[in-house]
């Protein structure tokens, strides 16, 4: 008697499927100078709070870890985060349901930064696969080409590497550190059940928010990013 | 009218007086100032759902002195059809003491079940994923009052991504109803305290009539970025014998009469609705176009609708009586079906469940009234709406006495018109205690 389990956030993902598609088609045309304000996606019926009017208490240390970028070069997460604010998303490219929503959020953020050089300079986007058996650096390069490099944005947006793991051991350490739940499959080509989580990381490498499917509203994430940008830098990083 | 019903009738009348006084105080101090528990369908939207057959029902159970080990415990009931132990208790994890076990909730990854004690303000975190048939106590939070700056009585635990949002019921200063929401990380590290808006400090909220600062349930509608909180009473009342409470006019003034609408992301209260009579459980509708929630008031016996009107204004109004309010049926837990069509309402005093057709949320229609026992409190339904479970205990000092003190879990099938009993477990006979909140488990949640 096997239970049917919906590894999604309630019914909300059905709404989001329409929502994100609508956001992708919106074109995101913005004037220069003023802060970029993506249009309201159809499934998020509210105005985001004004940046700086609320708190984002640190949740945990954003752990370092070793990965491979899309060229096959070894990269450290802490090096990629640098002294910027980071949005980190874990995905696998064979995922046919929820991962594309996370990557679409990253694409929306990338588009926003492409039109706001100041925002782009202080923001890092990282997409990392938890399926290294299939997601080789070459596969991640194709993913990057599809989501990051199209639309003529080129070098204008925030840095956005597409990473994969060097081995399962190093991957496991990263997933454990971020409490990113991925269930192993007995079928090596089977789907990887997981909860979609996108992490907002501050300049001191602390996790300040976690977004699930119900929160993949680029306006909300940008409000959080701008809230962090308004904070004074701490003297000593907590790592 | 027996003694207990008479007591509740007095309580209700006392409530009315209390409301009048509180309203006067609010107007005096504020002038013209500005501004969840029990089942698969009432789960936080931020967690996986068991959309098919659940395997287990976890029952957070109050210990009873002299009964078994006398301690609070998490009891696991096997509800797998065809199982050799279907409808039986298959595990029990004791916490070694009594804490007024009450409510709780699962984390967003459903790996841990947070349960709390209203008396000791301790939080017990059970691992339900390593062996879903045999949950184990993983860790305990013992410094809730100190860490939160004086919040007392951790109540519901509501999953957010990577964190838990707890409602308090009371405070350490006067053990009254003023309290706060509290946030923890999933691993149990304190994050923040958000005090409820009061007349003295509405925190920018518009106050419809009174801002009592009380708490009980908390529920989020993410696509509107709004949260609702409700209001019950403080420790001085909930730990006291009910007969004593109702004889104390001052105590009777201290019951909640508000529902608060919050900007969820900013954790800022926006509007305080006047909902007299202790509004308890809150249930948001699930439909993508359904911008409404239900609550019921324990002491005035009404269904309230909180809704967004066509102009985008959030409002609250009473939409139905539950039974005969003058009989004080005392509505407690509610459960809204996943299709937003039916609302189950348990009433403690008469031990009944009433099922309403709420397809028109402004005009609920009673479609079934059925006796479950001599008292009943919690109701949990499966996501597919085919199975419904009931437990009995309200509070140790508020449960009925003697032969009327039914303490059970019962499982029913629901076909849309009738409830058919499938099993019952007498928690007194099994020497387990007083069964309270239920949560569902499934082994398939933890395997690919």
Automatic annotation (TrEMBL), chain B:
Signal found in the keyword field: yes
EC numbers on record: 1.8.3.4
Q: Read off the InterPro entries from this record.
A: Haem_d1_sf, Se-bd, WD40/YVTN_repeat-like_dom_sf
Q: Which Pfam families match?
A: SBP56
**Which residues belong to the signal peptide in this entry?**
1-38
Q: What Gene3D superfamilies does the record tag this protein with?
A: YVTN repeat-like/Quinoprotein amine dehydrogenase
Q: Name one GO molecular function term.
A: selenium binding
Q: What protein name is recorded for this chain?
A: Methanethiol oxidase
Q: Would the keyword Signal be found if you checked this record's keyword annotation?
A: yes
Species of the source: Skermanella stibiiresistens SB22
Pathway per the UniProt entry? Organosulfur degradation
Q: Which UniProt keywords apply?
A: Signal
* Reaction(s) catalysed (UniProt annotation): methanethiol + O2 + H2O = hydrogen sulfide + formaldehyde + H2O2 + H(+)
Which protein family is named in the record?
Belongs to the selenium-binding protein family.
């Amino acid at each position: 008697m096997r239970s049917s389990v919906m590894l999604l956030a309630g019914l909300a993902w059905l709404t989001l499927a329409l929502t994100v598609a609508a956001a992708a088609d919106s074109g995101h045309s913005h004037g220069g100078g003023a802060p970029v304000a993506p249009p309201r996606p159809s499934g998020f019926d509210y105005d985001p709070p004004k940046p700086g009017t609320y708190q984002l208490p640190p949740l945990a240390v954003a752990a370092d870890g070793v990965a491979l970028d899309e060229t096959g070069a070894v990269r450290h997460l802490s090096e990629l985060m640098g002294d910027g604010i980071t949005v980190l998303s874990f995905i696998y490219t064979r995922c046919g349901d929820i991962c594309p929503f996370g990557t679409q959020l990253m694409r929306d953020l990338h588009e926003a930064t492409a039109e706001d050089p100041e925002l782009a300079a202080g923001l890092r986007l990282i997409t990392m696969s938890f399926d290294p058996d299939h997601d080789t650096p070459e596969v991640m390069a194709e993913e990057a080409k599809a989501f990051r490099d199209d639309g003529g944005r080129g070098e204008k947006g925030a840095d956005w590497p597409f990473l994969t793991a060097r081995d399962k051991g190093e991957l496991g350490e990263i997933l454990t550190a971020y409490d990113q739940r991925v269930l192993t499959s007995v079928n090596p080509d089977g789907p990887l059940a997981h909860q979609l989580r996108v992490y907002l990381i501050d300049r001191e490498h602390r996790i300040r928010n976690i977004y699930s499917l119900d929160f993949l509203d680029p306006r909300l994430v940008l409000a959080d990013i701008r809230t962090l940008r308004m904070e004074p830098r701490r003297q000593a990083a907590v790592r | 009218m027996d003694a207990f019903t008479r007591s509740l009738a007095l309580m209700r009348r006392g409530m009315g007086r209390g409301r009048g006084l509180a309203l006067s105080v609010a107007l005096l101090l504020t002038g013209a100032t500005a501004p969840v528990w029990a089942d698969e369908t009432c789960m936080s939207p931020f967690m996986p759902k068991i959309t098919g057959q659940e395997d287990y029902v976890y029952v957070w159970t109050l210990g009873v002195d002299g009964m078994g080990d006398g301690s609070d415990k998490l009891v696991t009931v096997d509800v797998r059809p065809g199982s050799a132990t279907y409808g039986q208790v298959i595990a029990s994890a004791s916490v070694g003491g009594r804490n007024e076990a009450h409510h709780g909730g699962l984390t967003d990854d459903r790996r841990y079940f947070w349960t709390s004690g209203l008396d000791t303000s301790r939080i017990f975190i059970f691992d339900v994923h390593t062996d879903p048939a045999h949950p184990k106590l993983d860790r305990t939070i013992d410094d809730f009052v100190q860490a939160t700056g004086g919040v007392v009585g951790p109540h519901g635990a509501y999953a957010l991504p990577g964190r838990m949002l707890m409602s308090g019921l009371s405070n350490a200063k006067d053990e009254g109803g003023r309290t706060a929401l509290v946030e923890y990380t999933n691993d149990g590290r304190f994050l923040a305290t958000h005090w409820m808006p009061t007349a003295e400090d509405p925190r920018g909220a518009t106050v419809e009539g009174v801002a009592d600062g009380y708490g009980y349930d908390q529920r989020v509608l993410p696509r509107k970025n709004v949260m609702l909180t409700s209001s019950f009473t403080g420790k001085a009342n909930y730990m006291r014998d009910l007969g004593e409470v109702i004889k104390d006019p001052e105590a009777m003034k201290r019951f909640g009469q508000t529902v608060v609408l919050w900007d969820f992301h900013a954790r800022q209260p926006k509007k305080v609705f006047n909902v007299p009579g202790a509004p308890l459980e809150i249930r948001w509708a699930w439909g993508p176009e359904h911008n409404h929630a239900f609550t019921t008031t324990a002491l005035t016996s009404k269904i309230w609708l909180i809704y967004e009107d066509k102009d985008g204004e959030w409002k609250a109004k009473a939409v139905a009586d539950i039974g005969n309010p003058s009989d004080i049926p005392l509505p407690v837990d509610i459960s809204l079906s996943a299709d937003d069509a039916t609302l189950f309402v348990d009433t403690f005093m008469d031990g009944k469940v009433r099922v309403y057709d709420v397809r028109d949320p402004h005009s609920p229609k009673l479609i079934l009234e059925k006796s479950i026992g001599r008292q009943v409190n919690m109701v949990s339904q499966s996501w597919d709406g085919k199975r419904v479970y009931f437990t009995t205990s309200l509070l140790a000092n508020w449960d009925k006495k003697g032969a009327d003190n039914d303490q059970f879990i019962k499982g029913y099938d629901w076909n849309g018109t009738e409830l058919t009993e499938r099993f019952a477990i007498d928690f007194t006979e099994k020497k387990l205690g007083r069964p309270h909140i239920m949560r569902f488990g499934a082994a398939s949640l933890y395997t690919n």
